Amino acid sequence: MPDSRILKHLDTLIDRYPQLENNRQPILDAYKLMEECYERDNKLLIAGNGGSAADSEHIAGELMKRFKIPRPVSEDFAQKLIEADPEAGAHLAKNLERGLMAIPLVAHEALSTAYINDVDGYGVFAQQLLGFGRPGDVFLGISTSGNSKNIMNAVAVAKALGIKVIGLTGAKGGRLAAAADVAVKAPETETFMIQELHLPIYHCLCLMLEEHFFG
What we know:
about 220 residues; five-stranded parallel β-sheet
């Protein structure tokens, strides 16, 4: 069980959004999968469509640099930077921040459009997951319906590779909730209302991870 410093973020989320009370354990389970992934020095792979594609990049942005807590590089790495370039290295040592590796699969336009043009649009995330994914990684699939075909194709690849799957869906859950190792189902059925709850949920997960690794 995470300590109180980490759980306070989940408590704050539920206080602010009481309708998420039934998601307390799924959110905690999703956090545990991500924490274990990063403890192994693995990575998070994220995909979604439309607004959920924007959420994929948003999540990566929160994990790859400071969210709320300073993340300075180690003294050893800072020294190596200065040795590599005394002028630029000193600036980099002061300003670079440690990240938790997160790859939004929606961000690779040349690769995505090449696959769509040469094959089809439904395998675009699956192709990237096959290329980027390694056993021990975690795939976070975001689908308000839970039935996005390109997300489900990526889930199949994830399972074949030994990658755990977190599904972020709406109340109905769909195929994604049934297939995921952990499903967090926002208790709404309208797409925009589901997305309005997805943001505080993934912000909470990012805060919990940052607290554990950098707090």
